[in-house]
Design a protein that fits this description.
This protein has about 325 residues and is of the alpha/beta class. The chain contains twelve helices and 14 strands. The protein folds into three domains: about 100 residues, Alpha-Beta Plaits (2-Layer Sandwich); about 120 residues, 3-Layer(aba) Sandwich (Oxidized Rhodanese, domain 1), CATH 3.40.250; about 55 residues, no CATH class. A hairpin with a 6-residue loop joins strand 11 and strand 12. The longest helix is centred in the N-terminal third of the chain and has 14 residues.
Length: about 325
């Protein structure tokens, strides 16, 4: 039985962009003790591949974390597959704010954890989480002087969009964000602490961790930025989020408000468009305006532009044995 994709990624991407099928992009997560994540992984792969689900799903002994897209006509069938899984019957599905080409292949992977947090879950009660806030409740509590708002995302996410007056940790990873947040919150034990992230999963763990650290008034935005945005639109509530919401798929972002709060990493002009350097050996994620994209041919520097013009075989030789990890995961910290 084929339980993974065998088609070349570029071919899949080409097919995907030629297909005008309407799809729904969504995300969800659920912490639940799974005795055999491998069997569960195979089960959902078989069922979801049949109905054309695409995306990235992580399964671990602690649960599931999924970012996927589904053909619109198969959405009800997908819901039925969810209902057939006991611990997912009441799971919240965070439907994307904007439509678009998000995923082009299905990946279901078994991981040690569904979220890389660097924490030892045996040392604290991971179920003792912060109070969930709906959009209106978030706005009301956020407006109080005795409230601190902290963004639990990475710097390249908050750079293009965030809530007003939020603390923005200068972090590359969630593990690093936890560490920085601890320092930022050190003198705020008696205040209301509101945490937020993209869809809620990072705050689910972070709120439990900080409650374990002695913070009593800990809150988290229910469903994250995605649900907040849909709720303020549907309920006519004031939107306190400015800019874009960074997403981890082909779209890279969703527009939440009209403000552009970031700048091109190459020329400094107002811009909030993320891109990956065209030089495969670099692949740096950074912000680039249209003018610089043309000037540098979608590369992050003159050096990468020069490399990208070389024959493919020569590029492969340059990449061979090179350690690009530090550059790739710096996620666009440019000095300009």
């Amino acid at each position: 039985m084929k339980l993974y994709n065998k088609i070349n990624s570029q071919e899949l991407k080409d097919r995907f962009y030629l297909n005008d099928q309407k799809r729904i992009t969504l995300s969800f997560y659920k912490y639940f003790r799974l005795n055999n994540p491998e069997i569960f992984r195979d089960h959902i792969y078989v069922n979801w591949e049949k109905i054309g689900v695409l995306g990235r799903i992580y399964v671990a002994k602690e649960g599931i974390n999924a970012q996927i897209s589904i053909p619109e006509e198969q959405f009800s069938t997908f819901r039925e597959t969810i209902m057939d899984i006991t611990f997912l019957k009441e799971v919240r599905l965070n439907i994307a704010v904007e439509d678009g080409k998000s995923f082009f292949k299905l990946k279901v992977k078994v991981r040690y954890k569904i979220l890389a947090d660097g924490l030892n879950d045996d040392t604290f009660d991971v179920t003792n989480i912060g109070v969930h806030l709906k959009a209106k409740e978030f706005n009301e509590l956020a407006a109080r002087e005795d409230t601190v708002i902290i963004d639990m995302r990475n710097h390249y996410e908050s750079e293009v969009g965030h809530f007003n007056n939020a603390i923005l940790p200068d972090a590359d990873t969630f593990r690093e964000a936890l560490h920085i947040a601890g320092k930022e919150l050190a003198d705020n034990e008696n205040k209301n602490i509101i945490m937020y992230c993209t869809g809620g999963i990072r705050c689910e763990k972070a709120s439990a961790y900080f409650k374990h650290k002695g913070f009593e008034n800990v809150y988290q935005l229910e469903g994250g930025i995605i649900k907040y945005t849909r709720d303020v639109i549907e309920q006519g509530i004031e939107n306190k989020y400015i800019g874009k919401n960074f997403v981890f798929d082909e779209r890279l972002s969703e527009k939440i408000s009209d403000e552009v709060i970031a700048h091109c990493h190459q020329c400094g002009n107002s811009c909030d468009t993320h891109t990956n350097c065209k030089n495969v050996g670099c692949n740096l994620l950074f912000i680039q305006c249209a003018e610089c994209a043309e000037k540098y041919e979608n590369c992050c520097s003159d050096k990468c532009k020069e490399i990208n013009t070389l024959p493919e075989q020569q590029q492969k030789l340059l990449r061979k044995g090179a350690d690009n990890n530090i550059r790739i995961f710096s996620k666009g910290r440019f000095n300009h």
